[in-house]
Write a structure and sequence with these properties.
By secondary structure, the chain is of the alpha/beta class. It has 2 domains: about 280 residues, 3-Layer(aba) Sandwich (Aminopeptidase); about 350 residues, no CATH class. The protein has 26 helices and 14 strands. The strands form 3 sheets. The protein has a 9-stranded mixed beta sheet, with helices on both faces. Helix 9 packs parallel to helix 13, helix 12 packs antiparallel against helix 13 and helix 19 crosses helix 23. The longest helix has 29 residues. The protein starts with a strand and ends with a helix.
């Protein structure tokens, strides 16, 4: 981070240049863009000058108790922040100059012996320097926008208070022109109350425990008539106020929540007061990828880029074990062999959790990378236990298991009676390859198409290669479905991921398997290429996974698929292998759940940004924000049904089955 003098900082602001710097060890200032709102954390600092530290009779813990730790983190996502670095015990920025240096505070003597006149003068000079910077910044923003907004964030100790029902957030309005700003103040308070925190019921109040009597508000009111300060106290529910120990889950949720409500309130302010601002709240944020994000992304990609579940989970000896299984009339438990995982799981996890995610300032992007890292930690546990008793447990951790609702939907679909004849499966591997190559021209994607005997599925995308099972036999509808599924979604998202600045979209976000498969089945449906047998196959995957979880062996599940559900023995073997490989692979139930959620998303919002790479439904909000901020490129390639108005006639029975199930 740069270091600037007071003079250089003021000059940079006057020239309206972006900056991120420590100014004379006084404050950290960040201006990514000259928007109309500022966030301050003036009591976050803990530093004391050396000549004062030797006179302070309070311990570091005693001082920290009365400061506002972590308030700087709460506002770190915002484009303009001022964070004080010095302790309020050196000089209190929220008190007038004649009262900003304590001799006694909260019933305790602070200095022994008392500070000299020169020491006090130095502290007063630093107090004045902070306000000189704030003055210049607000003046500049008012010139640009006509008015300005300041979120002045503090925290407060609540255990020493008589009441047990103190508010999570308190807005102090005593010095504000409530007649002028009442709507914005009410909106701010109501927005704060909506922040969701783990195991905490949030409540926001106005003038309940604090009244906004601080100097920062008074200073701005004295110099500016078109700027609103919102003095806001956050109850220290995010930490143990007596020991200073932070509660990370609460703090992370608080950071994400404050980011959302600050942006929402800033947009409300802009509509009420009509500053010259964008109409989309994400455009209030910076449009560049912060260096910490780029660094974590690069290091994570170096570490995890070679980890592909299906590469390791597909048995090497499927052909031989299939022959043995059928030769012994299904009275045999296949013994599959797998590729060796050449990764030390302990070292891998250690390196994962050493990645400096805390350095990422933007709360929602930081959380996205935390979630990705946690997912890879679970994934390496899965891969390192292939063909062992622990594999099923780790598969359940990573993919989950069918819910009662999943089982209900599967049984509903299996109950449906055939309503049209099944076209003959007369397309072989070479013909399938030719059709895939032709389809790739339409998508304008360069990739290989390879015939192989090494995969369980009929076809699958691995990297930039479309792999086709040597023994594939499909009809034209099934072939169309494979193209829309594998090329129209899996290859499309792989190709779009290659165009992104951030590698995380190549690696995959949490939940990307169920999202990808849900989108892929949706593509089959939206192009009119899904059939009742296909739906029943997806349903039987759910049933087979459930049988495996219930400890039925390979032969029992295979026989059940044939005898109870009239499945072809080749398909039944392929499905059973999919579920039992590795020691119990639960992934296959996600196809049916995925299409349900994909359809629900499709009905209420655009799915386009889910195609920027290997994304997840749960992070769509963050992905949309990153696209709007130009951190992530819009998808160049899209599935056919999102590119063109196909005007496809979907069989009404299929439509009924899909929609009735959900």
């Amino acid at each position: 981070m740069n270091r600037l003098s007071i003079e250089a900082c003021l000059q940079t602001i006057q020239q309206r240049q972006p900056l991120h710097a420590v100014v004379d060890d006084l404050l950290e200032i960040k201006i990514e863009a000259y928007g109309f709102f500022i966030c301050t954390a003036i009591h976050d600092g803990h530093h004391l000058r050396a000549d004062l530290a030797e006179k302070c009779v309070l311990s570091s813990a005693e001082r920290r108790y009365e400061e506002d730790p972590f308030t700087a983190e709460m506002i770190a996502s915002m484009p303009i922040t001022l964070v004080a670095l010095d302790s309020r015990y050196e000089y209190d920025l929220n008190r007038w100059a004649d009262r900003c240096v304590y001799q006694e505070a909260w019933g305790k003597t602070v200095w022994q012996p008392a500070l000299s006149r020169a020491q006090k003068k130095h502290s007063l000079e630093k107090h004045a320097q902070f306000y000189a910077i704030l003055l210049e910044l607000v003046k500049t923003l008012e010139k640009i926008h006509g008015n300005c907004l300041i979120y002045d964030i503090h925290s407060y100790n609540y255990l020493r208070r008589d009441s047990d029902d103190t508010p999570t957030f308190n807005v102090g309005t005593e010095q504000l022109n409530t007649q002028l700003w009442n709507k914005v103040i009410r909106h701010w308070s109501k927005s704060l109350a909506k922040i969701s925190l783990p195991n905490i019921t949030t409540r926001a109040a106005v003038d309940e425990v604090f009244y906004g009597r601080g100097y920062l508000t008074a200073f701005v009111q004295q110099h500016f008539f078109k700027t609103l300060v919102l003095p806001t106290e956050v109850k220290k529910i995010y930490m143990d106020e007596s020991t200073g120990e932070v509660f990370p889950l609460v703090l992370n949720a608080l950071k994400v929540g404050l980011k959302e409500v600050i942006l929402a309130n800033a947009m409300y302010f802009s509509k009420q007061c009509k500053p010259k601002t964008p109409s989309i709240k994400t455009k209030l944020l910076s449009l560049y990828i912060e260096p910490a994000v780029a660094h974590v992304d690069e290091e994570l990609y170096k570490l995890a880029k070679g980890i592909s579940t299906l590469t390791y989970i597909n048995p090497k000896n499927i052909v031989g074990e299939k022959k043995r299984f059928f030769a012994k009339h299904y009275n045999y438990q296949p013994q599959f062999d797998y590729r060796q995982v050449r990764i030390n799981p302990f070292e891998f996890r250690e390196k994962l959790y050493r990645l400096p995610v805390d350095a990422i300032k933007d709360a929602s992007i930081q959380q996205l990378y935390r979630d990705v890292i946690d997912t890879f930690a679970t994934k390496i546990d899965l891969l390192s236990t292939i063909n062992s008793e622990k594999f099923l447990y780790n598969s359940l951790r990573y993919y989950g298991e069918p819910s009662d609702d999943d089982i209900r939907i599967a049984k509903f679909l299996l109950f449906a009676k055939p309503f049209e004849p099944m076209p003959p499966r007369n397309l072989n591997a070479e013909q399938a390859k030719a059709q895939c190559l032709q389809a790739l021209k339409m998508y304008k994607i360069q990739c290989k198409v390879q015939i192989t005997h090494k995969i369980v599925a009929l076809a699958m995308v691995v990297g930039k290669t479309m792999m086709i099972n040597k023994n594939i036999k499909v009809n034209q509808t099934e072939m169309n479905a494979l193209i829309h599924h594998e090329l129209g979604v899996h290859m499309v998202t792989s190709s779009n991921a290659d165009l992104q600045q951030l590698n995380v979209f190549k690696l995959g976000l949490p939940g990307n398997t169920y999202t990808q498969e849900g989108l892929a089945i949706l593509a089959e449906y939206m192009t009119g290429n899904i059939s009742l047998p296909r739906l029943k196959t997806l349903a039987l995957r759910v049933i087979a996974v459930q049988m495996m979880i219930n400890r039925h062996d390979f032969s029992h599940t295979f026989r059940s698929l044939i005898n109870d559900y009239d499945m072809d023995k080749e398909e039944a073997f392929r499905l059973t292998v999919r579920v039992y490989r590795g020691g119990g692979f639960t992934k296959d139930f996600l196809y049916l759940r995925g299409v349900k959620d994909a359809l629900l998303f499709y009905q209420r919002e655009s799915l386009n940004n889910l195609y920027v790479g290997k994304t997840g439904f749960s992070h769509l909000k963050t992905i949309n924000e990153m696209v709007e901020r130009k951190m992530v490129s819009k998808p160049v390639h899209l599935p056919v049904y999102l590119q063109q108005n196909l005007n496809i006639h979907i069989n009404p029975i299929i439509e009924y089955l899909i929609k009735s199930a959900y």
